[in-house]
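pls ignore typos typing on phone
zinc ion + seq
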Amino acid sequence: MVGEDLSVRVRLATESLPESEVVWGEKRRFNPTAAVRFLARRVEGLPMVCVRHGVPATGVVPATINFVQVGSVRMPRTVGLELRKWAREIIPIPPWFRLPDTSAKLRADWPACAACIARFRWLRQLAFGVLLAGPPAIVALFLAAAVGVPHGVIVSLVVLCFPGWLPVGIGISGLMLMAANTDIKVEPIDERPFVVIRAHPRFADATRSERHAD
Ligand SMILES: [Zn+2]
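k done
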């Protein structure tokens, strides 16, 4: 299916996202220059056709994609990009080689079929499930220590919490949330009033016919 996908221009709203919706994240750390300013945009005017499967959409998948500055390009922050960044941070490397901070945010309600909505919900629920499992596990660890359960059980619980939950579980849930949000392939964003995505040919057709109807 992916091989048949087409590049499609989708329209962006002219106004920026409200400041309150942007500050969460990394804007505070991004230092804009004359050449590169922070972008916060929203996709609008999409046809109700599943972006990935080209069937009538039954709902939308609300997603916010962050972009990081790589040279002069704002690249979507995907799981692959994030893993490369982590690898670079674990191996000591000069700071100028590291990926800079988020330089753009893109909000979209992607039209989606039931299967795509289910995938998005499933990934998010799993991610939040892992996040929320940590505190009860830590409480269980303290209770187990207090009532004097066997040493082996305590050690297992400690490993489950650290590093099992912090940082491994938290890192994996972050990646799952990112995977849920970056299911739609978006090309680098710039100052133009549209972004290019990869989408099913029927979604591309529907986008073109809506544009003619405008
Ligand atoms: Zn779909």
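The helical segments are 19-22, 79-90, 114-147, 151-161, 164-181, 201-213. Residues 50, 52-53, 112-113, 115-116 surround zinc ion (CB under 6 Å). more later
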